[in-house]
Amino acid sequence: MLAHLCGGKRFQMTVETPETMMSVTQAARYLGVDRNTIYDAIKAQRLVASQLMGKTAVRQSDLDAFRDKELRPNKLRDKGHKQDKGHITHSGK
User: Fold this and answer.
1) What is the per-residue pLDDT across 76-86, written as a single tens digit (0 to 9) for each?
2) Which one of 19, 25, 67, 72 is most buried, by most CB atoms within 10 A?
3) What is the reported pLDDT for 89?
4) What is the chain's mean pLDDT, rounded?
5) Contact status, residue 29 vs residue 67, Cβ threshold 8 Å
6) pTM
């Protein structure tokens, strides 16, 4: 929070830190997936994107949420785990 003097009066102003934005290529590297995975998620509205100077960009916080919700359960299934009613169990493979 910053305090400013204006005409002898003091007022406070909150300054928010800008959120980290990533290009599709950066987002794909960040998540360890193919760029098409990012584009597909945007097209399916599972990931929010913005246009910055003609380039598609996504917020890091949205990528983190996408990873936690969409990618982690799939990785567990691929490694011989199965998800059953919210519980993850090992299949013994």
Assistant:
1) 444 444 444 44
2) 67
3) 43
4) 75
5) no
6) 0.60
